[in-house]
Amino acid sequence: MKNAISWFEIPTTYINRAQQFYEFIFNMKMSSLEFQNIKMRMFPIDNPMEGIGGTLVQISDDFYKPSATDGPLIYLDGNPDLQIVLNRVEEAGGKILVPKTTISDEYGDMAVFLDTEGNRIALHNIPAKYQNA
Question: Could you give all domains of the chain from N- to C-terminal order, each with its CATH number?
Answer without folding.
Answer: 7-131 (3.10.180.10)
